[in-house]
Write a structure and sequence with these properties.
By secondary structure, the protein is of the alpha+beta class. Among the domains are: 11-71, no CATH class; 73-142, no CATH class. Helix content is 40%, strand content 16%. The protein is built from nine helices and four strands, in the order E-E-E-E-H-H-H-H-H-H-H-H-H. The chain has helices spanning 74-81, 89-99, 108-111, 123-133, 142-146, 157-164, 169-185, 189-201, 210-220, and strands at 11-17, 32-41, 49-57, 63-71. Strands 1-4-3-2 form a four-stranded antiparallel sheet, with no helix packed on it. A hairpin with a 5-residue loop joins strand 3 (49-57) and strand 4. The longest helix has 17 residues, at 169-185. It is globular, with a radius of gyration of 20 Å. The termini are far apart.
Length: 222
């Protein structure tokens, strides 16, 4: 069965640069996306989807920097909803099998917690899908995966640890250190505890910055 690709067109929300004095841009069918600047969950728009800031080529090769919104098709939303552990097992297994072939740009939907697409009841199976997708395809979503350790009792945590065992320590440590800094700034003792737990499971507690690790341990014991 083919992968659940996104086929909806991009919708221009706002022109940011390159079309002076205008608030609209040429129809998206004339655009050639030349570079993606990043994306985030776009719940503030009608329907679920991704907001992206991109450089687009319009008529005569003129470049525009625009904010686009891509709605998610119902197939991906329904498959993620079918990961819910309250659904019949055969429905869960079908969703896991189909989502293993998800496009790279949509993997974030499985890795990002606390949104209305992949809710807590789906996290264990979402982690299973992420494991099937594997490293390095999941590397771009590691910042979201680090948030899984905000509570080590959350569904999917142990599966996520298995995934991270496949990552090169030198690639993984910067993401762990960035999450550690955020936990310390936020004074989030549970997250600090989760990161210490992760480091011990991966035997990396002596590989990250020692001052950072000591701060994590102190925070996790408060």
């Amino acid at each position: 069965m083919s992968a659940p690709h996104i086929r909806e067109q991009y919708i221009c929300i706002k022109v940011l640069e390159g079309l002076s004095g205008e608030s609209s841009a040429p129809h998206s069918s004339h655009w050639e996306r030349s570079s993606t600047k990043g994306y985030s969950y776009g719940a503030q728009f009608e329907g679920a989807g991704m907001a992206e800031t991109v450089m687009c080529k319009g008529n005569f090769g003129v470049e525009y920097k625009v904010l686009l919104f891509r709605r998610l098709n119902m197939m991906i939303k329904e498959l993620i909803a079918d990961l819910d552990w309250g659904k019949p097992r055969e429905i869960q297994e079908n969703a896991i099998r189909r989502l293993e072939e998800i496009d790279d740009e949509d993997i974030v939907l499985l890795a990002k917690q606390s949104n209305d697409i992949c809710h807590k009841g789906c996290w264990q199976n979402a982690a299973v899908v992420l494991k099937l997708i594997g490293y390095p395809r999941i590397k771009p979503v590691l910042p979201y995966i680090m948030q899984w350790f905000q509570d080590i009792n959350w569904p999917g945590v142990y599966t996520i640890i298995e995934i991270l065992r496949d990552a090169e320590p030198l690639e993984l440590i910067p993401y762990i250190e960035e999450a550690s800094k955020r936990a310390i700034i936020d004074k989030d003792g549970l997250w600090a505890l989760g990161i210490v737990f992760l480091l011990e499971k991966l035997e990396l507690n002596h590989r990250i910055n020692s001052d950072l690790y000591n701060q994590l341990v102190c925070l996790s014991n408060e």
